[in-house]
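Can anyone check this?
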Amino acid sequence: MTTPHLARLDGVVQHYAWGSRTALAELRGRPSPTDRPEAELWIGAHPRGPARLLDGPSPGALDAVIAAHPVGMLGEEVVRRLGPRLPLLLKVLGIDAPLSLQVHPSHEQAEAGFAREEAAGIAIDAPERNYRDRWPKPELLIAHTEVEALAGFRRAQDIVATLDAMAVPLLEPIRRQLASEGDGALRHVVARLLTWSPDQRGVLTDAIARRATALVGEGHPDTPLLRWLPRLRSRHHTDPGIAVALLLHHLHLAPGEALFLPAGNIHAYLRGTAIECMAASDNVLRGGLTSKHIDVPELLRILDPTPVDDVRVAPTPVAGGVAYLAPTPWFAVQVLRPHAASVVLDDAGPQLLLALGDVEVVGQDRHLPLSAGQAAFVPGGAASVRARGPGPLVRATVGSDA
């Protein structure tokens, strides 16, 4: 193989029902609205949507090129530590409607679940398959536009205060349990809500939506969360995930703000355009707010019911931009604005670069001008790679072992 070097990448668009017909197209300078929703732009080597190397010495699907030349593409240290695969995946999300209520497994849980479903003979692409690979899926989300999300459990006392204001009789047993048992009741409360009697689900979600609407009209302090409940009801009708939303933090991220979701954290993204970096996995356990496969028992097994005060990640200044420090070995993310002074992009491992504005990437006798929505791959160990221009430029690398 010729020495690998900097090359353009063409990402893969995933068409899910919650996607936008404008966000990804406009970012990439393509006509909009599109004929069908464009939910995610994948930039990586995941087998469900590998990006293509468009030029350089080895054009082709990125996963195939890495499989043929793992050390040359990833670097010796990454192959030794994490194996002969690209361990991270970069995405752009165009969220026009709420995503499913979901959690992701840890590495150990993913390996066990994958082995279990393989032994059961469940086809890898079967709709009822939970574990499509052996890998975890911690994820960092950076708002490109304003983004709203539900993420992480609130503390029991705060949920009780909201339920007191809601005053929905059907939720009174839930309120009493949280008031008496505190945070330790959260897993059981989620189980009760997601297994609510089917013939009573419509009554429950209608009552929640009506009371939420009234409280929003009164200017209740929980309005940012409450105003989503009627919207979820109008889209998902009798889905008890609407009630679970009452247990979660509502987050409003301004552009550049970020959140990090470790294994077991329950969440649902609601709207906006965002950059997402994750371990290269497609393992999702869904509990509601979706027409896709739902597996409540497995979600409850994976769920981490520990309340969190905040899942936000504050940006840390670095040369030429900021870094979003996430506690994971699978990836690390920076957003750079090189301007006239170029920024060095050398790294021992592979790099995924995504332009959000005009930027030039130069290295190894290669000069790649990138505009918004275009991407590039830098192989592990590549030297003298630099970026300049207004950007921004998203740079995703492999995380540290720490």
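Reply from J.R.: I decoded it. Residues 12 and 49 are 6 Å apart (CA to CA).
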